[in-house]
Write a structure and sequence with these properties.
alpha/beta, Rossmann fold, 8-stranded mixed β-sheet, two-stranded antiparallel ribbon, 10 strands, globular
């Protein structure tokens, strides 16, 4: 009876499939918690979840499970309790830092129908992409962007590090969080996004800190919307429904409410943006200035004498 009102969206056979399915949510930050809630209320019956952090006051504005009552508690414990409070028949496996150990990760992926990324670590993200390909498990992810988006990487698809020419290629995953590697990967990712969402703006100082690995901005309406897109695509995969989202990414441009699809490769236009973002990130902090940073002024901002 708990899921009776979902009739019409899923049939009886699909309801059974969701109950039998297993999702692996790597990371329970703002995005991961929204994913968790969406799957719990959709009737998914098996969860594998990971996180190492506890709730702090800064999480109150972006983490759906963070309240005054949960401050100081481990996210993994609060998430587990939430799942049981929604569905007492759910099965939950929890991991902290040990999820990335080879035997554990292999076991996790062999049980999972789909992987969803909610982690900020480049190293752990690339470990998941590489291992999920070996275990033939699809990944549903999103790009860091001020617009809702989703992409699905199937085992036969190129990974983000391959398509966007990350300097992580060929390196062991354990060294990928080194600042110079992680920053260059982030610059390439943001350049790819800006080559698609040409009307998007960033607040200058926030962008500067983001590109220099000082902060990861979080805006709850955006996080919630991205999690909804990711959840729908993951459920489509579980239910073997037609699914048009692929490894390039599907973007909802909030400036004009149009949808956009990314190119398959890192374009020459994205390369120009990458070079200018790299120059912008290297500027002294006191020269960054106030206001908005848009695609139209990237060249001028990076090279003010031009």
């Amino acid at each position: 009876m708990s899921f009776a009102r979902s009739r019409g969206f899923v049939g009886a056979d699909e309801r059974q499939r969701l109950e039998e399915s297993c999702v692996f949510i790597a990371g329970l930050g703002a995005l991961g918690q929204n994913l968790l809630q969406n799957f719990a209320r959709s009737g998914v019956g098996n969860f594998i979840i990971t996180d190492v952090d506890a709730f702090s006051p800064e999480n109150l504005t972006s983490h759906v499970l963070c309240t005054s009552a949960t401050l100081g508690r481990k996210k993994i414990e609060v998430a587990r309790d939430f799942l049981f409070s929604v569905n007492r028949n759910v099965h939950v496996q929890t991991y902290e830092a040990d999820w990335s150990e080879a035997p554990n990760l292999t076991s996790i992926l062999k049980q999972s129908d789909v992987v969803l990324l909610g982690i900020d670590s480049l190293a752990h993200g690339m470990l998941l992409y590489r291992t999920a390909r070996k275990e033939r498990v699809p990944i549903v992810d999103f790009y860091f962007a001020p617009a809702p988006n989703v992409f699905v990487t199937r085992p036969s698809d190129p990974s983000p590090e391959e398509r966007l020419h990350y300097p992580s290629m060929g390196l062991d995953w354990s060294v990928l969080d080194q600042p110079e590697i992680a920053q260059d990967c982030l610059l390439r990712l943001i350049a790819y996004v800006l080559s698609i969402l040409t009307n998007i703006r960033f607040e200058r100082r926030a962008l500067y800190k983001f590109l220099n690995l000082e902060i990861v901005p979080a805006w709850y309406p955006l996080v919630s919307a991205a999690a909804s897109l990711m959840s729908e695509q993951a459920i489509s995969l579980i239910l073997n429904r037609p699914n048009v989202t692929d490894y390039r990414g599907f973007f909802l441009d909030m400036t004009d409410f149009t949808t956009k699809r990314g190119p398959a490769e890192f374009s020459s236009y994205a390369q120009v943006i990458y070079e200018n973002l790299k120059a912008f990130a290297k500027r002294p902090a006191e020269e960054v200035g106030e206001g908005w940073f848009s695609i139209e002024n990237i060249q001028r901002s990076a090279h003010p004498a031009a």
